[in-house]
Predict the structure.
Amino acid sequence: MFDWKRTYDTWHNQFPTHKSQPIIGITGNFGEKGCELAEGYYRSILEAGGVPMIIPPYEDKDALLSALDHIDGLLLSGGGDINPLYLGEEPSPALHSINPKRDLPELLLVKLAYDRQIPMLGICRGIQVLVAALDGKLHQDIATELPNVKLLKHSQDLPREYASHHVTIEEGSVLEQIFDGNHELFVNSFHHQAVASPGSLLKVSAIATDGIIEAVESNEHKSIVGVQWHPECFILRDDRSMMPLFQWFIGEAESYRATVRLHQHMLTLDSHCDTPMFFGEDIHFNQRDSKILVDLHKMTEGHLDASIMVAYLPQGERNEETYKSVTSKTNELLDGIEHLTLANRQHIGLARTPDDLYELKREGKKAIMMGIENGYAIGHDLSLIEKFRQRGVVYMTLCHNGDNDICDSARGEGEHGGLSDFGREVVREMNRVGMMVDLSHAAETSFWDALKLSNVPIVCSHSSCRALCDHPRNLTDEQMRALAEAGGVMQVTFYNGFLRTDGQASILDVVRHINHAVQIMGIEHVGIGTDFDGDGGVPGVANASELINLTRLLRQVGYSNEQLRLLWGENFLRVMRQAQAQS
């Protein structure tokens, strides 16, 4: 007789030491009896340290979203052909075994998981679903579409748990790292559809000797890998040669799970965002709007709690008539920020102080603060500083790209040799009313003058490191040390041209600048100011939905949870508290 109660007692007694494991959603196939799943999938996930959960092929939107809220990784299993109508194509005569139940829910799952940065592993049909969902191209049938290619036998007669051919792994790929630097891998093969082009979001990481693409991975440093073979079959004969792939996947899911939990328990603040620049373009902040990099959906997906949205004023003519127009424009943009928060008050609130931010997070809401980019907004009227502060403006960037009446710009002509006499009055008045002085965009001479004059620490809301990218907008190591000694904060920005002078920057460059700033200034004086919607954003952190990727990468290179709290807002809010305490 099976004593199942003894098993229950044993498991129950072990519960206090139970370790939480990442939950992996596996897409189920659909057969004559309904949802089904081959044994190798869940055995491989279990052995790698994950908890397998089957996601049946259903199209219920709320259920799909809820499933993604409860998993830490998505495994796309193998199966029949994809309906070419979903690819914008008519069917090839060689097409067969289309499963009409699976295509739509799986394509939706991939897109939604991609937006949420959930790690994904696609197997056989799964690689094709990844590519189709992420704007790549498929061969409906390689034999008929590639008549001049001498193809391997891509649908083997051997049992599934045996390899039939080998693939070559690309140098420098994630797949190469997974398989410990090996460039040759022996795999099985059961397909006639295949990847034709991975598109812009994915890249090829392995090919067969006949040139057929056998593996893809993210082109943006995300946790996405797809393989054309069936790695889960090998475990059925105790062959563990494919376990590194599943172990990598579970490791990425663990990292994602831990980072989501960290974000739930810390405040994340982006100190500089230019979304108000798009207020006149019919944007919809309560939707996932492709025109902007920050909206409620993207903030939620990227676990961003708060953003300082700025009223940006490009530098123009300096006369009384223009000043009236510029001040009016500033108030119009600030009105727009207030309207945005009121229109979405169930989900977002306007914050004026650090305490407001924490209260909104406790309420489960996102937060917006207001800033001004370019002191040009006040013209020559000191009284406007107090009026803007009373509206809730927390900082003002003294200049932009061009000298103004306050100071010299990093991109200006050196008109004043630093702060003007009026600029000195501006800094004193900002100190008096509790508005932070922001020196991003300022010339070095202006920086040194303001640092010496201000009786509270100053900030650079969106700047990076001159030592790594020689741009006049970036801070030298000398400036960074002095800023730290004065108690200030530098917020690393994501603008491509401020991260590197050659080629396309990526999330790796963002981390490089953060590391350098921390090394020079100390962890207490560095933060994050994306410049999203002001041309900020690079692959890996291209919009607010991808910010959790940065936290994951910073954890991987050794930053502790407490250090991440400092980087993600506590440093900046310390200075804000000091400034507001002077008021």
In short: Residues 22-258 form a domain with the Rossmann fold fold (CATH 3.40.50.880). The chain has 19 helices and 22 strands. The two ends are 78 Å apart (CA to CA). The chain has a mean pLDDT of 95.
